[in-house]
């Protein structure tokens, strides 16, 4: 953010709008405060819209991937039999990135996303159709809304027909009997059904809908588009992050207490063990000098100071040696 402010030079008379997504790395209170103090307005995108609203995604990253792929292919041709490593990637990116980060591509990204020049109608209705499958009713919305009902001006039997399955009935289209002199005007009227005023394929076969989403267990809060530098939004983020920090601090303290308890239990178990004494001088092990060596008897497996023995190997204490004699 300091780099951005240094080069853009925003002021109170000419504030700067910074567009970004709701990633956790962009919601640091320190960064938001710095932006607000330096006349930078931070506006976040709505969730799941970066593929349409992010200028870099629209016109820069695509060409960059293409140029990078070409650079990788050229490297493989120029280095036959070699494997590309992570140390070769920076040089490839150095050649590919300037070709994608051109002023034309950058300005085109803002244009196709409707940001500059501003165009609220840049996206047509057909671009929203794929999201219609996962549309879910609002939690507070009334459940009284139902699917459109086909209005017919003909017989009432047509209205009671099941509209969930395809039908070849004449209730959906106008059926006109060919003219015949033998039919009276009354009979012609009975065999004619007027077509509905509004017709859609959704009446015949409704669009598929996704099932109700299960509650998320990941613990991540769902974000929305907001001006992050506004005081209410900033205060809400600050309270949320302080709450998260306090919970994390309590968890760390709890782990430290449990670790200390386990350490005390281990020390108490160690203190309950019998003290080891030298078989020759009867000095305890606890009074050993630093780097003083001990040696174990080959038969009884008791210990003695190495300085108290004759240094022979294998070591046999005087008790075991007398028993053998």
TrEMBL record:
Lineage per the UniProt record: Eukaryota, Metazoa, Ecdysozoa, Arthropoda, Hexapoda
DDE-1 domain sequence ranges? 3-78
Q: Where is the composition biased (Polar residues)?
A: 141-172
**One Pfam family, short name:** DDE_1
User: Where is the segment annotated Disordered?
Assistant: 130-265
Comp. bias regions, Basic residues? 215-225
Looking up PANTHER family in the UniProt record yields:
TRANSPOSON (PTHR19303), ZINC FINGER PHD-TYPE DOMAIN-CONTAINING PROTEIN (PTHR19303:SF71)
List all Basic and acidic residues biased stretches: 187-200
Highest taxon above the source species: Eukaryota
Q: Name one GO molecular function term.
A: DNA binding
Q: What is this protein called?
A: DDE-1 domain-containing protein
Gene Ontology cellular-component annotations = nucleus
């Amino acid at each position: 953010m300091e780099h951005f402010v240094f080069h853009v030079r925003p002021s109170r008379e000419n504030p700067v709008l910074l567009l970004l997504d709701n990633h956790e790395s962009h919601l640091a209170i320190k960064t938001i405060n710095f932006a607000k103090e330096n006349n930078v307005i931070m506006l976040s995108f709505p969730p799941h819209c970066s593929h349409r609203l992010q200028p870099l995604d629209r016109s820069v990253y695509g060409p960059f991937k293409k140029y990078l792929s070409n650079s990788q292919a050229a490297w493989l041709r120029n280095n036959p039999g070699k494997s590309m490593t992570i140390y070769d990637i920076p040089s490839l990116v150095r050649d590919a990135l300037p070709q994608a980060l051109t002023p034309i591509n950058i300005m085109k990204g803002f244009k196709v996303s409707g940001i500059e020049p501003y165009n609220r109608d840049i996206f047509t209705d057909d671009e929203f159709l794929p999201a219609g499958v996962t549309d879910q009713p609002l939690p507070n919305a009334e459940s009284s809304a139902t699917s459109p009902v086909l209005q017919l001006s003909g017989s009432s039997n047509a209205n009671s027909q099941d509209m969930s399955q395809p039908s070849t009935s004449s209730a959906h289209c106008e059926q006109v009997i060919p003219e015949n002199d033998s039919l009276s005007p009354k009979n012609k009227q009975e065999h004619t059904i007027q077509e509905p005023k509004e017709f859609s394929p959704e009446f015949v076969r409704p669009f598929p809908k996704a099932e109700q989403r299960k509650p998320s267990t990941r613990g991540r809060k769902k974000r929305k588009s907001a001006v992050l530098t506004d005081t209410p939004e900033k205060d809400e983020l600050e309270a949320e992050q302080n709450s998260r920090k306090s919970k994390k601090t309590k968890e760390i303290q709890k782990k430290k207490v449990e670790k200390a308890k386990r350490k005390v239990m281990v020390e108490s178990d160690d203190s309950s063990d019998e003290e080891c004494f030298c078989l020759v001088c009867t000095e305890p092990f606890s009074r050993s000098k630093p780097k003083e060596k001990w040696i174990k008897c080959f038969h009884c497996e008791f210990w003695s100071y190495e300085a108290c023995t004759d240094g022979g190997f294998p070591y046999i204490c005087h008790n075991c040696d007398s028993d053998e004699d």
